[in-house]
Amino acid sequence: MDNLLEKPLFDGDLIRFGPINHEKDAEVESRWTHDASFMRLMYLEPMRPMSAFQIKKKYEELEKEADEKHNIFPFRIRARADDRLLGLAEVHWIAWSNGMAFVRLGIGAAEDRRKGYGREALGMLLHYAFGELNLYRLTAMLPEYNTAALKLFEGLGFVQEICRREALNRDGRRWDLFHYGLLVDEWRAKQVGNQSA
After folding, report:
1. Residue 70: its pLDDT value, please?
2. Cβ pair 141, 178 in contact under 8 A
3. Taking burial as the number of CB atoms within 10 A of a residue's CB, which of 5, 52, 86, 122 is the most buried?
């Protein structure tokens, strides 16, 4: 367990977590909102393309919520090699009294997916949520059609707890919505197992 405490919170081998950069990030995230495949993987609610100006307004609302309610920690995933914006990682909807929260993760550009960025980012997010925020459990809501995310979350120890049958209407059909959960003790046991392997 001691190695877990020495692990850097915001720096990985491939990526690092950083704050929102209002000027540089807005243009990039605006492009992502014009990518229907990214939007359907990242968000459950219907979304529309947004301009850089609209993204900046969203940043202001997000930061205000983080400052006032302390129930969201929004990170931006950046490549260690060149510091470019790769994606989003969030701990949100935090219920402090119960020690629980939701996590959300997305890699923006299609060419950056399936390169290990998401796996490293999720591992770092779990380390932050459990090791620093002292949360007890995390939940992720994942649509049935996002098979890559299902595999990623299961690979890091999340288990399916709820299946909301045919909860999403996308692409002319109904899809299930899964709720995956991970408890701090399960996460710790997996970390210890990985260190001894």
Report:
1. 83
2. yes
3. 86
Cα 114 from chain centroid (whole Å): 15
CA distance 197 to 188: 14
SS3 at position 26: helix
Question: What's residue 9's pLDDT?
Answer: 64
Give the contacts of 33 (CB within 8 A, at least 6 positions apart).
39, 47, 48, 49, 50, 55
What is the largest distance, in Å, between two alpha-carbon atoms of the chain?
Answer: 50
> Other CB atoms closer than 10 Å to residue 179's CB: what's the count?
15
Helix or strand or coil: residue 144? coil
Q: Would you state the pLDDT for residue 84?
A: 94
* Whole-number Å distance between alpha carbons of 82 and 190: 31
Q: What is the secondary structure of 34-59 as a DSSP string?
A: T-HHHHHHH-SS------HHHHHHHH
Token digits of residue 193: 């197992």
Q: Which ranges of the chain have pLDDT less than 70?
A: 1-9, 193-197
pLDDT for 34 equals 94
Q: In this predicted structure, what is the pLDDT of residue 105? A: 95
pTM metric for this prediction: 0.89
**Could you count the other beta carbons within 10 Å of the beta carbon of residue 167?**
15
CA pair distance 187, 123, nearest whole angstrom: 10
pLDDT of residue 171: 85
